[in-house]
């Protein structure tokens, strides 16, 4: 069991059961201090530090929970952090609606993460795997999906001007994937905002998108007081994102 245990990760009761380890075994192991309990159905090795990444790895691989690293955190992991200066240092985890993180995870790592439950995008579209500092692969949003997740949380959680600077730096967005994401994105605000920011930055992806297949809805969207109105996308935005010079 210990030899097969990924360092700095959690072993769940469900996983240990597949190895033939009984509840009585687990009681004996914790009493003998071979294992440390993290709460109901979760254990770690004594004297070993487990980060939220190690705990998330166990959620993804052992419990098969559809939870992934998204938004700003996924962009940081992919190296797209040139303009990232947000004060919030929590890790952003995304899942479909009604997916709950286990109590043991929330107890030990709840202050380290922000769990976003949303139907913004189809569960698997635009996901990839990236290496955590500990060396194991975590399911994360690719750059394209992470950009839309970031805009989904703006302006409430992320400043729109800084989000715009991040989008501006994304010169290698894959057009085919972004087309699919925009077509299936559930938020009119996010669709319009991405297209405006990408157009403003003259990103290469804009030359390849079929805008007629992307539903931009009707009606104005206000994303800040005392802003500037962008008629093409029916958005009221901070003047720094609209004014030139």
Structure description:
This protein is 33% helix and 16% strand. The longest helix is centred in the last third of the chain and has 13 residues, at 188-200. The protein folds into two domains: 1-50, no CATH class; 66-217, no CATH class. Strands 1-3-2 form a three-stranded antiparallel beta sheet. It has a three-stranded mixed beta sheet with strand order 4-5-6. Strands 9-11-10 form a three-stranded mixed beta sheet, with helices on one face. The termini are far apart. It has helices at residues 13-18, 23-31, 52-61, 71-77, 103-109, 143-153, 160-168, 175-184, 188-200, and strands spanning 11-12, 36-39, 42-44, 68-69, 91-95, 113-117, 127-131, 137-141, 221-222, 228-230, 235-237. It is an alpha+beta fold and 245 residues long. The model has no long low-confidence stretch (mean pLDDT 93). The relative contact order is 0.11. Helix 4 (71-77) runs antiparallel to helix 6 and helix 6 crosses helix 9. Residues 8-86 form the Transcriptional regulator AbiEi antitoxin N-terminal domain. It comes from Sphingomonas lycopersici. This is Type IV toxin-antitoxin system AbiEi family antitoxin. It holds the Pfam family AbiEi_3_N.
Furnish the topology, listing elements before pairings.
Layout (H helix, E strand, L loop, with lengths): L10 E2 H6 L4 H9 L4 E4 L2 E3 L7 H10 L6 E2 L1 H7 L13 E5 L7 H7 L3 E5 L9 E5 L5 E5 L1 H11 L6 H9 L6 H10 L3 H13 L20 E2 L5 E3 L4 E3 L8
Parallel strand pairs: 5-6, 9-11
Antiparallel strand pairs: 1-3, 2-3, 4-5, 7-8, 10-11
Protein name: Type IV toxin-antitoxin system AbiEi family antitoxin
InterPro entries: AbiEi_3 (IPR021561), AbiEi_3_N (IPR033455)
